[in-house]
# Entry
Amino acid sequence: MERDTLHAKAATTSAYSSNRAYRTEEVEVANLKPAKLDGVELKLHGVDHTARPTWKLRETVEFYRDILGLPLVHTISARGWGQEGHPDFLHFFFDAGKGATIAFFYYLGTDRPDKFIPEDHYFYSATHTAWSVETPEELQRWKETLEKRGITVSPYTRHEILESIYFRDPNGYPIEVTLRLRDVHLLDAKDAELTLAAAIELEDELAAKGTRVMDIDTVWRRKAKLVEEFIKAA
Amino acid sequence: MVVVYVLDVAEFSEIVESARRKPDCRITKSDKGYYRIESDGDIVFNRKELKMKPAVWYGLFTGGLNGEIAEFGREQVRVIGTNRPL
# Structure
């Protein structure tokens, strides 16, 4: 398909572009149509880019390009457009391998709002991207090299199928570099489904009583029931 | 009675190996990818024996647990039977 054909066939406006309130409304999943009803299998093929705002232009460029050594591969500089009051901006991209990039927006003439000040809290650092390396030697090279370059790096942390290190950029954003320890298989997917089914069932049951799940032990007990049923089923 | 369900993957295999060394544990393997470890009494696991890093250790029972965790420390966990609903 010619790239411009995408635009020719599509409406130029939708609630997404014309109704600002839409951007903050909750998506009502119950009103949406499940994939299995139309039989269309949508697939993704990896990361193109992640993007975050920065209010430290020089430090961000120097950190990613000069300290980490990730090539700067693209910069957009543009007038603000679209939303009313949108500032002029720079949008720049550092190479993260396999076609993926780490991107930033720098909004000219703006100050960092308080809610973007980094916090030492798991809610805050939950928003992160884990960038992959392919061998244990490469993970070790990242840790030891960054430390020699003066960056504070976490100890190695093993999470079932991943071994990771963590550090922070000048914006306070957490960065994870991770090694996949093994491939995931069908049984991992089934197990994932059963764990979440246990948690969702319990949350629904307890919500009806005005409470909620407070500990993982409760989920593990319900999962025991679901796994027992699963392995006994013909 | 205590039942621990263990997914048949490398990072949890030491749970099964440890249970094999415990005379009270009966182990069966389902063809659907789970080991089932059953004991009439308490089951105690030790983190070093399982060769687990903390982030895996604290998810030890992610395969399912019919029992109650009486003690879950950084080095040792003890599971006892319970009448609490599953």
Notes: The interface with chain B takes residues 157-161, 181-182, 185, 187-188, 190-191, 194-195, 217, 220-228, 230-231 of chain A (CB under 8 Å).
